Amino acid sequence: MNVGILIYPGFAIFEFSCALELFALPRPELSQSQWYNTKIVAWESGPYDTLCGIKVECVPINRLEEFDLLVVPSWNTANSAIPETFCDELVRYQERGGRIISFCSGAFLLAQAGLLENRQATTHWRYAQTFKERFPNVHYMDDVLYVYDGTIGCSAGSAAGLDLGIEVIRRDFGHDVANTVARRLVLPAHRQGGQKQYIENPVQKTPDVFSSTLDWAAKNIELGLSVDMLADKSLMSRRSFDRKFREKLNMSPKQWLIIQQVDAAKRLLESSTDTIDTVALKSGFENAVTLRHHFKRLLNISPTHYRVQFNKTS
């Protein structure tokens, strides 16, 4: 799976580093026989200067057809012209089914090339007003960390590019691989912002009974746990447990339990041939109806369609 990380004069080094970490770093800890084959590329020959005198060499290109995924870590937010040949090639690449994702200001390149017309998109909040004024035909999303429809994606800011990258990895290699990468990146327990979270979010560990209870619950989600059970295991009153939960994770215990149950269901749907009823019971739901309700509510997809899209055994 070939990935191109696109740079330009004056590119942002942090977003570039995020792209390298996600798609260019070797993953010897994974059992996958394949990983991404990644190149640093530019439409014009380098090297390119960046902060602190760092110079980055790149591969000059004039076609994008070799890539399955193009990553745009950043782009100039000024209304500067894009070379016509480059713009045309971006359009052809997208029309051929090539995937493109942008981090932070990289959405400006996608929008300027016309790739975001009548699509949802986002970028860093500091550029939001400029983006909306320049690209009125793009459906700008204020309250998300990223948007991604499987073909084109944009992240709201630098760190949110990691969230978007993890989602791409999950779609390419599955839930377990994405979570392995997320753990290596030490992603937080829950990323607020309204986006549909598809990855298993590791709980941050602190040496106390509360965090130990959450670790235990995540590993025993099939038991059909209740909030009262978790409070008892934490040696806390229900009121104190609810209050601490919101302080630590910014959500209710019930919300957290449902997220863990849906995550468990996703793993089963990806890796087994169990019936939906069995998946529901194994992931801690009372029945398949409840599973379908929360699955649709959180992920906007049914369990059956999720399995069709992501099951690796079929």
From TrEMBL:
The keyword Transcription regulation applies. Residues 211-309 form the HTH araC/xylS-type domain. The keyword Oxidoreductase does not apply. InterPro entries: Class_I_gatase-like, DJ-1/PfpI, Homeodomain-like_sf, HTH_AraC, HTH_AraC-typ_CS, INH-QAR. Keywords: DNA-binding, Transcription, Transcription regulation. It comes from the Bacteria. Pfam families: DJ-1_PfpI (PF01965), HTH_18 (PF12833). PANTHER family: ARAC-FAMILY TRANSCRIPTIONAL REGULATOR, HTH-TYPE TRANSCRIPTIONAL REGULATOR RV1931C. This is Transcriptional regulator FtrA. The lineage of its organism: Bacteria, Pseudomonadati, Pseudomonadota, Gammaproteobacteria, Cellvibrionales.
